[in-house]
Specification:
Radius of gyration: 17 Å
Helix content: 10-25%
Shape: elongated
CATH topology of the domain at 14-103: SH3 type barrels
Strand order of the largest sheet: 1-6-2-3-4-5
CATH class of the domain at 14-103: Mainly Beta
Strand content: 25-35%
CATH architecture of the domain at 14-103: Roll
Distance between the termini: 46 Å
């Protein structure tokens, strides 16, 4: 970490970045782009599906890997519907994330829960979580 404790350092590896995020969560709050129902401070599970949401739209992806190079988090993803590989890059110094990732399993659980609570046999909603 830099001498000024209110500034983000430039870690040299993903492990160092994770350590810095654990030591100074307030400085790295803008990097918490993976949203899940239960509290989680670590990197998401590889192979897990996430709905990527950005100002231009949304798409379902599977996380393949996460790396860190030169102040950027590099996320390798696979589009679930097209099987196309995509790279998403996050600058650790930019405080406005361009994309948030919501765990797909949490979305499915919420939809299922709503179907159960409503006592309505909504085939369209159940098809979504199928």
């Amino acid at each position: 970490m830099n001498a000024d404790s209110n500034k983000i350092s430039t870690p040299t590896s993903i492990h160092e970045l994770v350590e810095e995020m654990e030591k100074h969560p307030d400085l790295y709050q803008h990097l918490q782009i993976f949203l899940r129902r239960e509290s989680n401070t670590g990197i998401s599970e590889f192979g897990e599906q996430y709905l990527a949401v950005s100002p231009s739209g949304f798409e379902l992806y599977k996380i393949e890997s996460v790396d860190y190079q030169n102040g950027r988090i590099i996320i390798s993803l696979t589009n679930v519907s097209t099987n196309e590989n995509v790279i998403h890059s996050v600058d650790i110094n930019y405080e406005q994330p361009s994309c948030l990732f919501v765990r797909w399993q949490d979305i499915k659980s919420m939809v299922f829960s709503e179907c159960i609570k409503s006592n309505i046999n909504d085939g369209d909603l159940l098809e979504l979580i199928g």
